[in-house]
Every structure is written in structure tokens, then in C-alpha cells.
Design goal:
By secondary structure, the chain is of the alpha/beta class. It has 2 domains: about 1-155, 3-Layer(aba) Sandwich (Alpha/beta knot), CATH 3.40.1280; about 190-255, Trp Operon Repressor, Chain A, CATH 1.10.1270. It contains 10 helices and 11 strands. The strands form 4 sheets. It has a 5-stranded parallel beta sheet with strand order 2-1-6-5-7, sandwiched between helices. A two-stranded antiparallel sheet has the order 3-4. α1 (about 10-15) packs parallel to α6 and α3 (about 65-80) packs parallel to α5. The longest helix is centred in the C-terminal third of the chain and has 19 residues, at about 205-225. It is elongated. The two termini are about 30 Å apart. Bound molecules: adenine. The site of adenine has 11 residues, from β5.
Length: about 260
């Protein structure tokens, strides 16, 4: 996966993503990260990239020309490797809300371009010309698109083989089957009088698996009733749901998963 980020604050992205798991994956060559400073593409002699909004109003608007030229430069770079026009994601609270399904889907791309806005936004004309996806990371307003781009890059990268140490962990954790992850424990067996659940020390793999699945169900029911309702359950799940939660019917049921 090759990430291209169009931003006025490239150092923010570079610093944030060159550490830990993502930094290691970049080092290994599984991911590449190219931050382009939009300011480098301005044709104005004072280096301006923004101006007052036509029609009046508060704040400044990022101009079309530097954004467009920056995009062209990225396309040329990508074109050299022969993969055609990339998807361009504009980070905005007006976009579709980012989730794990979108994250997995975007992980299939070979190149992704992120456009980070600042000030009151970007001239609409260049957005219409280059943006393929409008994406929000949640219903709140941030000062720019850099943090959302970093959030998305972190999440998308976890779905790319080789980025996590063990490929299994991306599959068994929260959201992978529509449920939240079960609780985890490590040494010591007792901490401030609290013991690790006996089943986890039993070495009985089938029992451990059943206990974890039940904990996932319980946790999702308590913390995310919206996800609980949409998940798919089988016969063994239903036994637990009836006995523990007193719920007789669920929306999605299959005999055996
Ligand atoms: N830019 C400002 N706020 C944002 C948000 N919530 N999601 C994506 N981009 C943004």
C-alpha cells in the first residue's frame, strides 16, 4: 500500500506515523508514506494557499490551484508505476462515517491519496475535480484533516498482511465478526485479590473458546446494544443468550456458524 497525503502540515503526519507498528511496516517496505506540502505548489509569490470566501463570511478558504497541482504531481508519480487514477479521500465532517468495513475495503487499494483541509474548507471546484470519497471519522469538528487521515491510515494498515505481527489478531478482535472482543488477562494469576477466570487456566481449548465467545456476546450486549442487535448468532450462542440474558429471539440466526 502506498499512501499519499496532501497537507499543509506534513511533519505532523510524518511524526505521527513513523512510530510503533505503522513505522515498522514502513521500514519493512510493506507500506510507503509520501507527504506532500500543498504550500510547495502555490504560484503566489508570498506563498499564500488561502483567500477570503466569495460572498463574504468568516474564515479563509484554501485555493484550488495549489491543491490541483499537488494532486497532478501525485498522479504523475503513481502513473509511472502504471496503476492509473487513485482514489482521493477528502477528510470532512460532511463525509460518510469511517468504520471497520470501509477500512477493510480501502485496504484492497494499491494507492490511496488523502486530502487534508484547513481553515473553512477548500474551493469546491477542485473538490469536484479530484475527490472520489468524502469521509468523516465521527460527528464532531476538528481543526483539520490531518488527525482523521492518520486515524484512517492506522486502521487501514492493520488490515494489510504483514503489518501486524500475527495475522490472526486482526481477525479475532473487536468488530471482526460484529461483536466486541472478549476480556484478556496476563500474569499474575491474582492481582489485588482478583483472580484470572479459572477456565483460562484450565488448558481446555474448547471451553476457553466458548467462554470467550460468551464474553464477547455479553460485553457487546452491555456496551454496544446496536452491534448486539445486528450480529449473527448460532445455536450455542442462542443457548447462552436465552439463559444469561433472557432474550428468546435475535434478528440474525444461523443453525451453525
Ligand atoms: N475535518 C474536521 N473534522 C473532521 C471529522 N470529524 N472527520 C473528518 N475530517 C474532519
Amino acid at each position: 500500500m502506498n499512501y499519499y497525503v496532501m497537507t499543509l502540515f506534513p511533519e505532523m503526519i510524518e511524526q505521527g506515523l513513523h512510530t510503533s507498528v505503522i513505522g515498522r511496516a514502513i521500514g519493512k517496505g510493506i507500506l510507503s508514506l509520501h507527504c506532500e506540502n500543498i504550500r510547495d505548489y502555490t504560484k503566489e509569490k508570498h506563498g499564500h494557499v488561502d483567500d477570503y470566501p466569495y460572498g463574504g463570511g468568516a474564515g479563509m478558504v484554501m485555493q484550488a490551484q495549489p491543491v490541483y497541482d499537488c494532486y497532478q504531481n501525485i498522479c504523475e508519480k503513481i502513473g509511472e508505476t502504471g496503476t492509473g487514477k487513485p482514489r482521493v479521500i477528502y477528510l470532512t465532517p460532511q463525509g460518510k462515517t469511517f468504520d471497520q468495513t470501509m477500512s477493510r475495503e480501502l485496504a484492497q487499494e494499491e494507492n490511496l491519496v488523502f486530502l487534508c483541509g484547513h481553515y473553512e474548507g477548500i474551493d469546491e471546484r477542485v473538490l469536484e475535480m479530484i475527490v472520489t470519497d468524502y469521509v468523516s471519522i465521527g460527528d464532531y469538528v476538528l481543526t483539520g484533516g490531518e488527525l482523521p487521515a492518520m486515524v484512517m491510515i492506522d486502521s487501514i494498515s492493520r488490515n494489510i498482511p504483514g503489518v501486524l505481527n500475527n495475522d490472526i489478531s486482526a481477525e479475532t478482535e473487536s468488530f471482526s465478526d460484529g461483536l466486541l472482543e472478549y476480556p484478556q488477562y496476563t500474569r499474575p494469576e491474582e492481582f489485588m485479590g482478583q483472580r484470572v477466570p479459572d477456565v483460562l487456566l484450565s488448558g481446555h481449548h474448547a471451553n476457553i473458546e466458548r467462554w470467550r465467545r460468551n464474553q464477547s456476546i455479553l460485553r457487546t450486549y452491555e456496551r454496544r446494544p446496536d452491534l448486539f442487535e445486528e450480529a449473527v448468532y448460532d445455536k450455542k450462542d442462542m443457548k447462552f443468550i436465552r439463559e444469561e440474558l433472557g432474550i428468546q429471539r435475535v434478528k440474525h440466526y444461523i443453525e451453525k456458524k
